[in-house]
Amino acid sequence: MDYDAVVFDMDGVLVERSPSWVFDDAAGRALAEAGIDDPTDEEFRTVRVLRSDLEEAMAHFESTHDVGFDRLWRRRNELVTENQVTAMVEGRRDSTTTSMPRSNFRAPAAS
Q1: Which residues lie closer than 8 Å to 92 by C-beta, 6 or more apart?
Q2: What is the rounded distance in angstroms from the CA atom of residue 85 to the CA atom of residue 6?
Q3: What is the mean pLDDT of residues 19-48?
Q4: What does the alpha-carbon distance between residue 30 and residue 101 come to, in Å, rounded to a whole number?
């Protein structure tokens, strides 16, 4: 399949952003899988959206939990992707977002 253009929607104008639960669940599961069952709020926020400096996050998780942050972040991203697929397939959204009904989306015409 050939494409004439690629559109990057970085602000959610064309397609709504992912629901919050997508990131909350992925962070919680990634932390639990790494053996961090009772993360601090800051640790959770860091894994959810990398709210701190990358080098600081790496040093913290390695010294405090003996967990490589790169592996933790990679697993978090895998789980975010799984959750985004689930959200699309099931039509799940959080209550703060609105979206165009699926029936309004049209696949590009085959050429």
Answers
A1: 19, 21, 86
A2: 21
A3: 93
A4: 32
Nearest residue to 92 via CA among 13, 20, 24: 20
Strand, helix or coil for residue 36? coil
| Residue 20 confidence class, pLDDT cut points 50, 70, 90 | confident
pLDDT over 90 percentage in the chain: 50
AA identity, residue 77: N
pTM of the model: 0.69
Quote the Cα angle for 103-105-106, to 5°: 110
What is the amino acid identity at position 87? A
- CB-CB contact of 26 with 83 (8 Å): yes
Stretch 23-49: mean pLDDT, rounded? 94
CA 55/CA 107 separation, integer angstroms:
42
Alpha helix (H) residue ranges in the chain? 20-33, 41-49, 54-65, 69-90
Contact between 16 and 99 (Cβ < 8 Å)? yes
